């Protein structure tokens, strides 16, 4: 059921408590003067094919794939979600938890980012997610369904993949121009045209952007290859690079 | 100086930052200039536009909830002895569903500076703005208005014949939109015989279905109507022996003729038409509700599509099936509030506020470029789904 529209009566006492903090604004976009042409929208926008299974957030400057067929039609949006490994042991992988990191969910299938985008790694299925602390670092402790053959090392970036370990995002050509909060329970499979329950998200990303690398979500090496900016610490590209853009 | 000033022409004024909204509205809303194809306007007869604009929340949804209440049946009383207690029963069943308004775009129009200058030079040479406007209305505006009508009609038919609306047409995003969940008990077969069977007593079977739902299933009596697609009406209903016989009988009666098998055989079958059905069958066949024939086909990228499922006839309450709900357009808000000062954006509304036309002048190199884009954020929302019977007429009752 879409949460916003749930209704009902509970003649008892519901004690509701929640807390959050907004960690201030982090200006991810690189500041420079000159005529910019980043905030150009793709035709149609598209349906997000890998929304978060629960309430979560994508950040301004996050990357995505605007995937279309060979006629540039029927667009689908694949968000690049990244998780930074802090430590791992056995079936537990601790990933960094802060106000600026994507949130993991039970059921996520992750892999250490392969060398090439869309490549294959070892798939790890998350069966439990616990909020905890390792040393002084806030982490999400992920419990995996099986111990990975090679334990992810500190600093490794995990990305979403299918059950065979194939990375979900196959191209990087889109930038989110602002934060997007995913507030509803999404449909189990957004591609299922027979399932009408729950939420589907449609959004239009921008064709390009120039960002401070250290303010972006952690980025695997296979994504860094898309950088077209020749300034240390800055990441940028434009989906239509025909000359004047970058 | 040319005899005719292009800068003051209506075509040019559509992109004018001050007068553009008015000129665009006048042009696009002029039914004598832009005459929409009536075959695509079926949605208006079933889902009138809601006067209210459903706002989009900051969470990104423009959701609606529709409720329907089943009538609580009365029952015969229980005989009792003094001091005996009473029984209770289930009352007040409510069905509801929620959905959200989806957004659609039409084919865009684009004209670069040199194309525009070509138009200007022709205008100045011939000075006949009426012809230019008529050409623009026919080639640009009309197909886009028709596109809106086709899209709404397609969704309206999906809702009426399945209770569900999804979008996998066009070349943009595809998604499910809502499912009103028509009760399973409302999905029935044709009756004793399949309607396609030449011996089927079609009219009796239709009346039988109506009677059963009113008396036995719902226990409520109200005006109903049948809806069938063009193919069903012409290839099934008008081909049925009982229908043909009934038409001929009452046609002969209307002519003051003797009604006999020989006389009927002598009547040409060319009198069996949609009009004859409405004139001679519906008023004379007791218990049969009027039959509305829906033109259900649309064009999608050069292909004919038909959202009406094969072999389905619909029995529904008379009158509207629901409402077309609409929401606001984020593009208009963002570009009006935050658009840069180099490009200019003008928004105009058409078709009872369903269609927003965005006229923009965009920078392209050293020159300008003129764009016109068409957006609709509306869906037909089904409101009578608990009283809607879907008859799978190619199947006979087991």
Tell me which protein chains meet in the greatest interface and how many residues each side has: A-B, 29 and 21 residues
Structural class by secondary-structure content of chain B: alpha+beta
Oligomer: heterodimer
Number of strands of chain A: 15
Count of DSSP-assigned helices of chain A: 1
Please outline the helices and strands.
The complex is a heterodimer of chains A (246) and B (398).
Chain A: E1 46-48, E2 56-58, E3 63-67, E4 76-79, E5 82-89, E6 92-96, E7 109-112, E8 124-134, E9 137-144, E10 157-160, E11 174-175, E12 180-182, E13 202-203, E14 208-212, H1 221-224, E15 234-238
Parallel strand pairs in A: 1-4
Antiparallel strand pairs in A: 1-13, 2-12, 3-4, 3-11, 5-6, 5-10, 6-9, 7-8, 7-10, 8-9, 14-15
Chain B: H1 10-13, H2 20-28, H3 42-46, E1 49-54, E2 63-69, E3 94-100, E4 104-105, E5 109-112, H4 113-126, H5 129-162, E6 164-167, E7 175-179, E8 187-189, H6 202-217, E9 224-229, H7 230-237, H8 241-254, H9 261-266, H10 274-281, E10 291-294, E11 298-300, E12 303-305, E13 312-317, E14 322-327, H11 330-338, E15 344-350, E16 355-364, E17 367-376, E18 378-382, E19 389-392
Parallel strand pairs in B: 1-14, 8-19, 9-10
Antiparallel strand pairs in B: 2-3, 4-17, 5-17, 6-7, 9-13, 11-12, 13-19, 14-18, 15-16, 16-17
Task: Describe, in short, the structure shown.
The complex is a heterodimer of chains A (246) and B (398). With 246 residues, chain A is mainly β.
Structure overview:
The complex is a heterodimer of chains A (246) and B (398). Chain A is mainly β. In chain A, 2% of the residues lie in helices and 29% in strands. The radius of gyration of chain A is 19 Å and the shape is globular. Chain A is built from one helix and 15 strands. The longest helix of chain A has 4 residues, at 221-224. Chain A has two domains: 27-80 and 169-246, no CATH class; 81-165, Beta Barrel (Thrombin, subunit H). In chain A, a hairpin with a 2-residue loop joins strand 5 (82-89) and strand 6 (92-96). In chain A, the strands form four sheets. Chain A has a six-stranded antiparallel barrel. With 398 residues, chain B is an alpha+beta fold. Chain B folds into two domains: 6-68 and 94-179 and 326-381; 188-321 and 384-392, no CATH class. Chain B has eleven helices and 19 strands. In chain B, strands 4, 5, 15, 16 and 17 form a five-stranded antiparallel sheet that branches. A five-stranded mixed sheet of chain B has the order 8-19-13-9-10. In chain B, a hairpin with a 2-residue loop joins strand 11 and strand 12 (303-305). In chain B, helix 8 (241-254) packs across helix 10 (274-281). Classes of the chains: A mainly beta (246), B alpha+beta (398). Chains A and B meet through loops of A and strand 7 of B.
